[in-house]
Design a protein that fits this description.
Layout lengths: L5 E7 L4 H10 L4 E7 L4 E6 L4 H14 L2 E5 L1
Antiparallel strand pairs: 1-3, 1-4, 2-3
């Protein structure tokens, strides 16, 4: 079944969720962020297939700034 996006699950500090949402909102087409479990800091990135590489680079740079763990790429 074709999909319109690639799903990544990240674990972040719950205090950083709003920052991450704002960051991805500023990059209009990269990804949409959805909070799966705010208490555990689990978020989902619904990544546009055309921007998987760009999103990966952004997540790498973000990991230099805040603690995060990729649970499902």
């Amino acid at each position: 079944m074709p999909t319109d996006s690639v799903q990544w699950i990240l674990e972040v500090d719950k205090r950083d969720i709003a920052y991450i949402v704002g960051l991805f909102e500023s990059y209009d087409d990269f990804a949409v962020v959805r909070t799966l479990d705010p208490a555990r800091g689990h978020i989902e990135l619904m990544v546009s297939p055309d921007f998987v590489t760009d999103t990966a680079q952004l997540v790498e740079r973000l990991a230099e700034e805040i603690p995060l763990r990729i649970l499902k790429p």
